[in-house]
Design goal:
CATH architecture of chain B: Orthogonal Bundle
CATH class of the largest domain in chain A: Mainly Alpha
Largest sheet of chain A: none
Strand content of chain B: under 5%
Structural class of chain B: mainly alpha
Radius of gyration of chain A: 23 Å
Number of domains of chain A: 2
CATH class of chain B: Mainly Alpha
Oligomer: heterodimer
Amino acid sequence: MADNSTTTASRLGLRIVALAYVGMILLLPVGLLFWRTFENGVGEVWDQLTNPAAVHAFRVTLIVAFWAVLGNTVFGLGAALLLVRHRFPGKRVFNALIDLPFAVSPVVVGLALILVYGPNTSTGSWFADRGIDVIFSLPGMVIATIFVSLPLVVREVVPVLEEIGDEQEQAAWTLGASKRQTFLRVTLPAIRWALAYGVVLTLARALGEFGAVAVVSGNVVNKTQTAPLYVRNAYLNFNQQGAYTVAFALAMIAILALVILNLVRPKEHT
Amino acid sequence: MTTGEIQARELHPPIPPRRVQPSRLRVDRGTGIGLGLATMYLSVIVLIPLAAVVFRAFDDGITGFWDTITTPEAWAALKLTILSGLGVAAVNAVFGTLVAWVLVRDRFPGKRLLETFIDLPFALPTIVAGLILLALYGTQSPIGIDLAFKVSGVFMALLFVTLPFVVRTVQPVLLELDQEMEEAAVSLGASRFTTFRRIVFPNLLPAISAGTALAFARAISEFGATVLISGNLPLKTQVAAVYIFGQIESDRPAGAAAVSVVLLLLSLVVIVSLDVLQRWGRRRG
C-alpha cells in the first residue's frame, strides 16, 4: 500500500538521521579513541600505562575517589534518611541546597574552594599552621571531588526510601529491634540497589573529574596529578600516545560503570 | 505481597516518587545531631565556598562587578557561552527528541547497544571527551574536518556532553504515551505530521523543555570538553569557564569571581524555571 510504504520510508529516514547524528557526535569520536590508542601496537600502550607518572596519576585518582565516595555515601545515606523519615524546619531549603552542586561549573567549584581554603586566606593559613595544606594538595582535591558528586547518592536513595514507606521499620521497632538493628536489617537491605547505583555514579564522576581538580590541585607531576589531568598534560606536551592511552583507560572505566549501572537497574532503561 | 503483585510491580514502569508522610513526628535528639552534621558537611564543602565567590565578586561594589564583567575579554566569553549554550540547547531539543523517538518507536539491530551508549557522555570524563573530539575534528582529523580553535569546535564538544539530556527526559514520556490516540487520529484522516504536531508533540513538550533546560545549564558550565578544542583564544573561542580558569591561573580572582557569579545566576534561573516546568508537566498529567 502506498500509505504503508511512505510510513516505512519516513521511519527509515528518521532512523538514518538519528543514527547519523549520534554517529558523528558520539560513536565516531569514541571509536577513533580506540584506533588512536592501538595504532602503534599493544606494546606502546603497555609502555604508556606503566610509565611511572601515569601509574602515580592513577594512584592519586583512586585515593581521591575513595575518600570522595566514602564521604558522599555516608552523607547521602544520612541526608536521605533525614529528608524522608524525619521532620524538621527548613526541610525544603535543605532539599534544594543538596542539588546546588549540579548547577555549578567545575571551574567555579575550584575557585570557590581556593577563595576559602587557599594559602592566602585565614582558613588556609590556620590549616597551614597545623601542617595541613588544603589547596594544591590532596585534601583540596578530595573536597572538590566531593562537591561535584555530592547529590548523586542522595538523589538515588530518596525515591526508594519514599516508595518503601516505613511500615516495616515500624514493625521491627515495635517488635523490639534497636534503631541500629532496624537500619541494618530492614532499611539497608531495602535500599541496597539504589545505594549501589548512587555509589557507582559517584565513583564514575569522582574518577573522571577534571575542571574542579585542575584548579585546586596545582597539577604537580608525581604529586597531585590525577589521571584526567595527566591526559591534558600529555596532550599539551605532544605525548599523544600517552594522552590517548590514559584516556582509553578512563573510557573503559566509564563504559564498565555504564554496564554495571544497567545491570543494577535493568528495568528502568528498557 | 503475592507473586502476581510482585510481577505486576516489575512489569510496570517505576512509579513516580510520591511523598510519604512519616506517620510519627520525630524531632528527637538523633534528628538534631544528624541534621547538624549534614548541614555542617554541606556548609564547609558547598555553601561557604560559594558565598565566598559572591562576596569576592562584589568586593568593589556593583560598579566594580559590572566593570569586571564588561571588560572586552570577559564580555566576549560570556556572550559566546550564552549564545553557544542556546544554540546547543536548540539542536538538542530537535535531535534529542528525534533520537528518543527512534529508540522508542523503531526497531533495528544494535538498538540495545545504542541505548546503553547514549549515556556515555555522562560517564566519560570530560577531558576524554575533549581529547576524542579533537582527535576527530582537530588538525589531524581523519575525515578532513578541522574545527580546532574554532567556535564550531566548541559547539561540537558541547553537543557531545549534552547529548543524553533531552533523549533521557523524552524517552520515558514517549514510552508511556498511549499509541491509541495516534491511531485514532490517523484513522480519522490526520496525516502523520499532523498527528505528531497535534497529539504527540504537546504531550512531549514539558519533557523536551526540561531536557533542553538541563542541556543549556550543562553547556554554559562546561570546561573539560572545551578546553582543548577551543585553543583558548580570548575574544574568539574562549568560553566563560575557560576564561575563569585563565583568570585563576594568572592570579586574578576578582575577574574569575565576577564571571562565576554570572554563570551561577544563569544556572539559578534554569533551576527555577525547571521547577516551574515540572509543576506544569505534572498538571498536564
